[in-house]
Amino acid sequence: MKDNDWMDDDERRAARHSRRVRERVTAYVVLVLIFAIIVAACVGAFTLVRRYLADQKAQEEQEVIVEVDDTPEEPVEEEPAEEVVTGPTAEEQFDEYLTTYISGMTLEEKAAGLLIVTPEQLTGVSVATRGGSGTQAALEEYAVGGIIYTSQNIQSEEQFTEMIANTVSYSRYPLFIAVTEEGGDIGTVLNSVIEVADVASNAEVGADGASGNAYSQGTTIGSYLAALGINLDLAPVTEVTISEDADIADRTYGSDAQTVGTLAAQMSQGLESQGVSSTLKSFPGTGDLTASTEDGAVSTDRDLASYEENEFIAFQTAIDAGADFVMVSHITASNLSGSLDPVSMCESVVTDILRDTLGFEGVIITEPMNYDAITEYYDLGDAVVSCLKAGCDMILMPSSVSEAVNAIVEAVEAGTLSEERINDSLLRIYRIKYADKLADFE
User: Fold this and answer.
1) Looking only at Cα atoms, what is the longest distance across the chain?
2) Cβ-based neighbours of 248, under 8 Å, separated by 6 or more
């Protein structure tokens, strides 16, 4: 009984133990299920919250887009960039001043201002040796642009300087006072009673080839000319010797175009360093001709290519150095100009080549209009107007001042020559005459 009783107790304990185990397992399972349910609920809630927030954000963005689309933006006015304003240059102000000055001249004064004449052509006397009342009266009637003197006008240094000073004082406009002074034995003053320093000829300077000799030529000549009151020299010769028999051969710097141009440029700079304007002459070149336009009509059959290989090189070099004047010849060069008229009357040479191609911006002056190449074949008035229409700025030594002035005035009044064309020439002329005033505008 006791054993059975014992067994019964054991069974009961085992049963109780087994029941407790089952209860614990059940409790654990329930706890796990509850935890799983809680986790699932949290995940679901998080998902719902995230989805809600995403929907809200999307709705807000849509509202913003709709608002932007429905309400147009007002244009934003940008401030304009500050414009940099630069004033006129000194040269432009100077030109404006000169243009105003020129506009105050009468047409007759403008026409006369294009002429450089001898004192005899101005006054009508046979030989002028003093600047007196006759000169004063003539300048009051014809306000010419300049006076050119020859050796016959010089009796002594004192007489000559007084003559020049009086003449300048009588003119209401500034004058070019000119001579031809080339060096060697060619020169107005050199061949007068006035003693001046010896100056080598162009041929000697060209043969020597020493650097600076041509500049010394210019400074020496310029120095004694300026002391006399002369401000324009019709030099240097800038032609190239093409033929040793040429009429100009003994007055050139030689046959090499570049050398000629360099030496002509140096002499020009030497003259202008002394306040004397230089004149490159005579364009386009007569280095192949045995006759002079002074004695009659002269023509060459040379063409553009020939000139480009020779004289144009020389003139271009000297032009680039800054010469004030270029003289144009009266030769006929039909293969160059396309005309049987003297090149001084041909726009194709004066304007198209010298002004435009070679870029010369200074004063273009004719050879003397009293040369036989003009007087034997042309009416003076017609020749003067033709030269101006071709592009020349100044007329040198017309045989009659009154005839030249009247021809210019009548051409303007008839509309065959514009007053603007005359004004352009006067502007170039007065840039030189009043060059010292440019500094006032800088």
Assistant:
1) 190
2) 237, 239, 241, 286, 287, 289
Angstrom distance (rounded) from CA 135 to CA 122:
7
Cβ–Cβ under 8 Å, residues 423 and 91: no
Question: What 3-state class would DSSP assign to 237?
Answer: strand
Query: pTM for the full model?
Result: 0.81
Q: Cβ distance 258 to 311 under 8 Å?
A: no
Cα–Cα dist 424/408, whole Å: 14
- Is it the case that residue 210 has pLDDT exceeding 90? no
DSSP codes, 73-90: PPPPPPPPPPP---PPPH
Number of residues that make up the chain: 442
Cβ neighbors of 145 (< 8 A, separation 6 or more) are: 112, 113, 114, 115, 116, 173, 175, 176, 394, 429
Nearest to 144 by CA among 165, 182, 172, 120: 172
User: Which DSSP symbol is given to 152?
Assistant: G
**Contact assessment for residue 263 and residue 323, using Cβ atoms and an 8 Å cutoff:** no
User: What is the average pLDDT across 147-153?
Assistant: 98
Q: Which amino acid is at 92?
A: E
DSSP-derived 3-state class of residue 262: helix
**Helices (H) and strands (E) in the chain — how many of each?**
17, 10
